[in-house]
Amino acid sequence: MLELRRLQVLRAVVDGGSVSAAATTLACTPSAVSQQVAALERQTGTTLLERVGRGVRPTAAGRLLAEHAAVIEQQVAEAGAALDDLLAGRSGHLTVRYFATAGARLVAPAVAAFRARHPGVRLDLGMTDPDDPVQEVLQGRADVAVVVRLRGAAHAGLRLVHLLDDPYRVVLPKGHRLAARRVVDLADLAEEPWVGGDRPGPCLDMVLDACAAAGFRPGFAVDSEDYATAQGFVAAGLGVALVPLLGLAAQRHPGVIVRKVRAPEPVRAIHAAVRETAGGQPPLVRLVAALRETAMAVRG
Protein backbone atom coordinates (compact mmCIF):
# COMPACT_ATOMS: atom_id res chain seq x y z
CA MET A 1 0.00 0.00 0.00
CA LEU A 2 1.31 3.43 -0.93
CA GLU A 3 2.21 5.67 1.98
CA LEU A 4 0.45 9.05 2.10
CA ARG A 5 3.57 10.85 3.35
CA ARG A 6 5.63 9.69 0.36
CA LEU A 7 2.87 10.74 -2.03
CA GLN A 8 2.78 14.19 -0.38
CA VAL A 9 6.55 14.54 -0.84
CA LEU A 10 6.26 13.56 -4.51
CA ARG A 11 3.51 16.09 -5.03
CA ALA A 12 5.63 18.83 -3.43
CA VAL A 13 8.50 18.02 -5.81
CA VAL A 14 6.21 18.06 -8.85
CA ASP A 15 4.56 21.34 -7.79
CA GLY A 16 7.89 22.99 -6.94
CA GLY A 17 9.79 21.68 -9.94
CA SER A 18 12.85 20.66 -7.89
CA VAL A 19 13.93 18.70 -4.82
CA SER A 20 15.24 21.84 -3.11
CA ALA A 21 11.94 23.69 -3.62
CA ALA A 22 10.06 20.74 -2.15
CA ALA A 23 12.43 20.66 0.82
CA THR A 24 11.72 24.35 1.50
CA THR A 25 7.95 23.77 1.28
CA LEU A 26 8.09 20.74 3.57
CA ALA A 27 10.60 22.26 6.00
CA CYS A 28 13.06 19.37 5.66
CA THR A 29 16.40 18.65 3.94
CA PRO A 30 16.78 17.93 0.21
CA SER A 31 18.32 14.60 1.21
CA ALA A 32 15.20 13.62 3.11
CA VAL A 33 13.04 14.50 0.09
CA SER A 34 15.21 12.44 -2.23
CA GLN A 35 15.05 9.47 0.16
CA GLN A 36 11.26 9.57 0.25
CA VAL A 37 10.99 9.76 -3.54
CA ALA A 38 13.51 6.91 -3.94
CA ALA A 39 11.55 4.77 -1.47
CA LEU A 40 8.34 5.44 -3.41
CA GLU A 41 10.06 4.47 -6.69
CA ARG A 42 11.22 1.20 -5.11
CA GLN A 43 7.72 0.55 -3.83
CA THR A 44 6.08 1.20 -7.20
CA GLY A 45 8.86 -0.38 -9.28
CA THR A 46 9.00 2.55 -11.70
CA THR A 47 10.76 5.89 -12.23
CA LEU A 48 8.69 8.83 -11.02
CA LEU A 49 11.01 11.80 -11.70
CA GLU A 50 13.54 12.63 -14.40
CA ARG A 51 16.20 15.31 -14.16
CA VAL A 52 15.89 18.35 -16.43
CA GLY A 53 18.68 20.89 -16.04
CA ARG A 54 18.76 21.88 -12.38
CA GLY A 55 15.25 20.69 -11.77
CA VAL A 56 13.11 17.63 -12.26
CA ARG A 57 9.91 16.79 -14.05
CA PRO A 58 7.53 13.93 -13.41
CA THR A 59 7.21 10.89 -15.59
CA ALA A 60 3.71 9.80 -16.57
CA ALA A 61 3.63 7.60 -13.47
CA GLY A 62 4.94 10.44 -11.29
CA ARG A 63 2.31 12.85 -12.62
CA LEU A 64 -0.43 10.27 -12.02
CA LEU A 65 0.57 9.71 -8.40
CA ALA A 66 1.00 13.45 -7.75
CA GLU A 67 -2.54 14.09 -9.02
CA HIS A 68 -3.92 11.35 -6.79
CA ALA A 69 -1.95 12.77 -3.86
CA ALA A 70 -3.71 16.11 -4.37
CA VAL A 71 -7.10 14.37 -4.37
CA ILE A 72 -6.24 12.40 -1.22
CA GLU A 73 -5.06 15.51 0.61
CA GLN A 74 -8.30 17.27 -0.30
CA GLN A 75 -10.33 14.32 0.93
CA VAL A 76 -8.37 14.21 4.19
CA ALA A 77 -9.00 17.94 4.68
CA GLU A 78 -12.70 17.48 3.95
CA ALA A 79 -12.87 14.55 6.38
CA GLY A 80 -11.27 16.69 9.08
CA ALA A 81 -13.74 19.52 8.44
CA ALA A 82 -16.67 17.08 8.49
CA LEU A 83 -15.46 15.64 11.79
CA ASP A 84 -15.13 19.14 13.24
CA ASP A 85 -18.71 19.87 12.17
CA LEU A 86 -19.94 16.63 13.75
CA LEU A 87 -18.14 17.24 17.03
CA ALA A 88 -19.42 20.81 17.14
CA GLY A 89 -23.01 19.70 16.50
CA ARG A 90 -23.19 21.35 13.08
CA SER A 91 -23.96 18.07 11.26
CA GLY A 92 -25.01 14.48 11.88
CA HIS A 93 -28.07 12.26 11.94
CA LEU A 94 -29.97 10.99 14.99
CA THR A 95 -32.88 8.57 15.16
CA VAL A 96 -35.23 9.28 18.07
CA ARG A 97 -38.03 7.04 19.35
CA TYR A 98 -40.65 7.86 21.99
CA PHE A 99 -44.03 6.75 23.34
CA ALA A 100 -47.24 8.65 22.77
CA THR A 101 -47.75 10.65 25.97
CA ALA A 102 -44.08 11.72 26.08
CA GLY A 103 -44.32 13.13 22.56
CA ALA A 104 -46.20 16.40 23.05
CA ARG A 105 -44.95 17.56 26.46
CA LEU A 106 -41.40 16.20 26.49
CA VAL A 107 -40.00 15.19 23.10
CA ALA A 108 -41.50 17.93 20.90
CA PRO A 109 -40.16 20.92 22.89
CA ALA A 110 -36.80 19.20 23.42
CA VAL A 111 -36.45 18.58 19.68
CA ALA A 112 -37.43 22.19 18.91
CA ALA A 113 -34.77 23.49 21.31
CA PHE A 114 -32.15 21.11 19.89
CA ARG A 115 -32.92 22.07 16.29
CA ALA A 116 -32.66 25.78 17.13
CA ARG A 117 -29.12 25.18 18.43
CA HIS A 118 -28.06 22.53 15.89
CA PRO A 119 -29.98 23.07 12.63
CA GLY A 120 -27.51 20.97 10.63
CA VAL A 121 -28.28 17.74 12.51
CA ARG A 122 -31.01 15.65 10.84
CA LEU A 123 -33.52 13.98 13.16
CA ASP A 124 -35.63 10.92 12.38
CA LEU A 125 -38.57 10.94 14.80
CA GLY A 126 -40.94 8.03 15.36
CA MET A 127 -42.87 6.01 17.89
CA THR A 128 -41.27 3.19 19.87
CA ASP A 129 -42.30 -0.41 19.45
CA PRO A 130 -44.81 -0.77 22.32
CA ASP A 131 -43.91 -4.45 22.82
CA ASP A 132 -40.17 -3.81 23.24
CA PRO A 133 -39.28 -0.12 23.15
CA VAL A 134 -35.51 -0.51 23.65
CA GLN A 135 -34.69 -3.05 20.93
CA GLU A 136 -34.18 -0.44 18.22
CA VAL A 137 -31.58 1.25 20.41
CA LEU A 138 -29.84 -2.00 21.36
CA GLN A 139 -29.69 -3.08 17.71
CA GLY A 140 -28.36 0.29 16.52
CA ARG A 141 -31.44 1.25 14.52
CA ALA A 142 -32.17 4.16 16.88
CA ASP A 143 -29.84 6.43 18.83
CA VAL A 144 -32.14 7.28 21.72
CA ALA A 145 -35.55 6.15 22.93
CA VAL A 146 -37.72 7.80 25.57
CA VAL A 147 -39.09 4.91 27.60
CA VAL A 148 -40.87 4.01 30.82
CA ARG A 149 -38.67 1.90 33.04
CA LEU A 150 -40.27 -0.81 35.13
CA ARG A 151 -38.60 -1.05 38.52
CA GLY A 152 -35.88 -3.72 38.45
CA ALA A 153 -35.74 -3.99 34.64
CA ALA A 154 -32.24 -3.87 33.12
CA HIS A 155 -30.70 -4.35 29.68
CA ALA A 156 -27.04 -5.15 29.09
CA GLY A 157 -25.35 -2.54 26.91
CA LEU A 158 -27.99 0.12 27.61
CA ARG A 159 -27.61 3.31 29.64
CA LEU A 160 -30.74 4.88 31.09
CA VAL A 161 -30.75 8.63 31.78
CA HIS A 162 -33.51 9.61 34.18
CA LEU A 163 -35.70 12.42 32.85
CA LEU A 164 -38.66 12.67 35.21
CA ASP A 165 -41.10 10.80 37.42
CA ASP A 166 -44.67 10.89 36.15
CA PRO A 167 -47.22 10.22 38.93
CA TYR A 168 -50.64 8.76 38.23
CA ARG A 169 -53.94 10.42 39.07
CA VAL A 170 -57.36 8.85 39.48
CA VAL A 171 -59.89 10.01 36.90
CA LEU A 172 -63.50 9.99 38.12
CA PRO A 173 -66.78 10.89 36.43
CA LYS A 174 -68.33 14.13 37.63
CA GLY A 175 -70.70 13.46 40.52
CA HIS A 176 -68.78 10.38 41.68
CA ARG A 177 -69.02 9.58 45.39
CA LEU A 178 -65.26 10.23 45.82
CA ALA A 179 -65.13 13.43 43.77
CA ALA A 180 -65.28 15.68 46.86
CA ARG A 181 -62.02 14.30 48.23
CA ARG A 182 -58.72 16.00 47.45
CA VAL A 183 -56.83 12.70 47.72
CA VAL A 184 -58.27 9.24 47.12
CA ASP A 185 -56.98 6.07 48.76
CA LEU A 186 -56.37 3.46 46.10
CA ALA A 187 -58.17 0.81 48.16
CA ASP A 188 -61.37 2.88 47.93
CA LEU A 189 -61.45 2.05 44.21
CA ALA A 190 -61.38 -1.72 44.72
CA GLU A 191 -65.09 -2.26 44.00
CA GLU A 192 -65.28 0.20 41.13
CA PRO A 193 -65.48 -0.83 37.47
CA TRP A 194 -62.25 0.19 35.78
CA VAL A 195 -61.42 1.61 32.38
CA GLY A 196 -58.08 0.43 31.01
CA GLY A 197 -56.01 3.09 29.29
CA ASP A 198 -52.79 1.13 28.84
CA ARG A 199 -51.48 -1.50 26.49
CA PRO A 200 -49.84 -4.51 28.15
CA GLY A 201 -46.41 -3.36 29.27
CA PRO A 202 -44.63 -1.37 32.01
CA CYS A 203 -47.42 1.20 32.49
CA LEU A 204 -50.16 -1.37 32.95
CA ASP A 205 -47.91 -3.49 35.16
CA MET A 206 -47.31 -0.43 37.33
CA VAL A 207 -51.07 0.08 37.83
CA LEU A 208 -51.61 -3.59 38.61
CA ASP A 209 -48.71 -3.63 41.07
CA ALA A 210 -50.08 -0.57 42.88
CA CYS A 211 -53.54 -2.12 43.13
CA ALA A 212 -52.02 -5.36 44.41
CA ALA A 213 -50.18 -3.37 47.10
CA ALA A 214 -53.55 -1.86 48.08
CA GLY A 215 -55.02 -5.35 48.39
CA PHE A 216 -57.08 -5.84 45.23
CA ARG A 217 -56.98 -6.50 41.50
CA PRO A 218 -58.94 -4.00 39.38
CA GLY A 219 -61.92 -5.29 37.44
CA PHE A 220 -61.71 -3.81 33.96
CA ALA A 221 -65.12 -3.15 32.49
CA VAL A 222 -63.76 -1.31 29.43
CA ASP A 223 -60.54 -1.94 27.53
CA SER A 224 -58.97 1.20 26.04
CA GLU A 225 -55.43 1.58 24.72
CA ASP A 226 -55.17 5.39 24.95
CA TYR A 227 -55.79 7.86 27.74
CA ALA A 228 -58.01 10.24 25.78
CA THR A 229 -60.47 7.44 24.95
CA ALA A 230 -60.31 6.15 28.52
CA GLN A 231 -61.35 9.56 29.82
CA GLY A 232 -64.35 9.52 27.49
CA PHE A 233 -65.54 6.23 28.97
CA VAL A 234 -64.99 7.59 32.49
CA ALA A 235 -66.95 10.75 31.66
CA ALA A 236 -69.80 8.53 30.47
CA GLY A 237 -69.92 6.91 33.92
CA LEU A 238 -68.62 3.51 32.81
CA GLY A 239 -65.76 3.30 35.31
CA VAL A 240 -62.70 4.95 36.85
CA ALA A 241 -59.16 5.05 35.54
CA LEU A 242 -55.60 5.78 36.58
CA VAL A 243 -53.88 8.13 34.14
CA PRO A 244 -50.35 9.61 34.40
CA LEU A 245 -50.00 13.37 34.49
CA LEU A 246 -48.41 13.51 31.03
CA GLY A 247 -51.44 11.66 29.68
CA LEU A 248 -53.74 14.21 31.27
CA ALA A 249 -51.69 17.17 30.13
CA ALA A 250 -52.01 16.14 26.48
CA GLN A 251 -55.82 16.20 26.66
CA ARG A 252 -58.21 16.42 29.61
CA HIS A 253 -61.87 15.55 29.12
CA PRO A 254 -64.28 18.22 30.46
CA GLY A 255 -66.55 15.54 31.93
CA VAL A 256 -64.09 14.11 34.45
CA ILE A 257 -62.66 14.96 37.86
CA VAL A 258 -58.97 14.34 38.52
CA ARG A 259 -57.66 13.63 42.02
CA LYS A 260 -54.40 12.57 43.60
CA VAL A 261 -54.18 8.96 44.68
CA ARG A 262 -52.27 7.42 47.59
CA ALA A 263 -51.49 4.22 49.47
CA PRO A 264 -49.71 3.77 47.13
CA GLU A 265 -49.32 6.46 44.50
CA PRO A 266 -48.15 4.82 41.24
CA VAL A 267 -45.29 6.72 39.60
CA ARG A 268 -43.72 5.83 36.28
CA ALA A 269 -40.05 6.68 35.77
CA ILE A 270 -39.33 8.09 32.31
CA HIS A 271 -35.81 7.66 30.93
CA ALA A 272 -33.79 8.33 27.81
CA ALA A 273 -32.26 5.02 26.71
CA VAL A 274 -28.96 5.12 24.79
CA ARG A 275 -26.35 2.48 24.00
CA GLU A 276 -23.38 2.56 26.36
CA THR A 277 -21.03 2.51 23.37
CA ALA A 278 -22.73 5.50 21.70
CA GLY A 279 -23.30 7.77 24.69
CA GLY A 280 -20.25 9.96 24.03
CA GLN A 281 -21.28 11.16 20.55
CA PRO A 282 -21.55 14.97 20.78
CA PRO A 283 -24.90 15.42 18.95
CA LEU A 284 -26.45 12.62 21.03
CA VAL A 285 -25.10 14.09 24.25
CA ARG A 286 -26.63 17.46 23.34
CA LEU A 287 -30.01 15.92 22.45
CA VAL A 288 -30.17 14.04 25.75
CA ALA A 289 -29.27 17.30 27.50
CA ALA A 290 -32.19 19.01 25.71
CA LEU A 291 -34.52 16.22 26.90
CA ARG A 292 -33.31 16.71 30.48
CA GLU A 293 -33.78 20.48 30.28
CA THR A 294 -37.32 20.03 29.00
CA ALA A 295 -38.05 17.44 31.68
CA MET A 296 -36.94 19.92 34.35
CA ALA A 297 -39.36 22.49 32.93
CA VAL A 298 -42.18 19.92 32.95
CA ARG A 299 -41.43 18.99 36.56
CA GLY A 300 -41.20 22.63 37.57
Estimate the strand proportion: 25-35%
Helical proportion, percent range: 40-55%
In CATH's first tier, which class of the largest domain applies? Alpha Beta
How many extended strands? 12
Major sheet description: 8 strands, mixed
Please tell me what the overall shape is: rod-shaped
The SS-based structural class is alpha/beta
The overall number of domains is 3
Cα radius of gyration in angstroms:
32 Å
Low-confidence region ranges = none
Written as H for each helix and E for each strand, in order along the chain, the element string is HHHEEHEHEHEEEEHEHEHEEH
Q: What CATH architecture of the largest domain do you see?
A: 3-Layer(aba) Sandwich
What is the mean pLDDT? Answer: 89
Question: Could you characterize what this model shows?
Answer:
The protein has about 300 residues and is an alpha/beta fold. It has three domains: about 5-85, Winged helix-like DNA-binding domain superfamily/Winged helix DNA-binding domain (Arc Repressor Mutant, subunit A, Orthogonal Bundle); about 95-165 and about 270-300, D-Maltodextrin-Binding Protein, domain 2; about 165-270, D-Maltodextrin-Binding Protein, domain 2, CATH 3.40.190. Helix content is about 45%, strand content about 25%. It has ten helices and twelve strands. The chain has helices spanning about 5-15, 20-25, 30-45, 60-85, 100-115, 135-140, 200-215, 225-235, 245-250, 280-300, and strands spanning about 50, 55-60, 90-100, 120-125, 145-150, 160-175, 185, 195, 220-225, 240-245, 255-260, 265-275. A hairpin with a 2-residue loop joins strand 1 and strand 2. Helix 2 (about 20-25) crosses helix 3. The model has no long low-confidence stretch (mean pLDDT about 90).
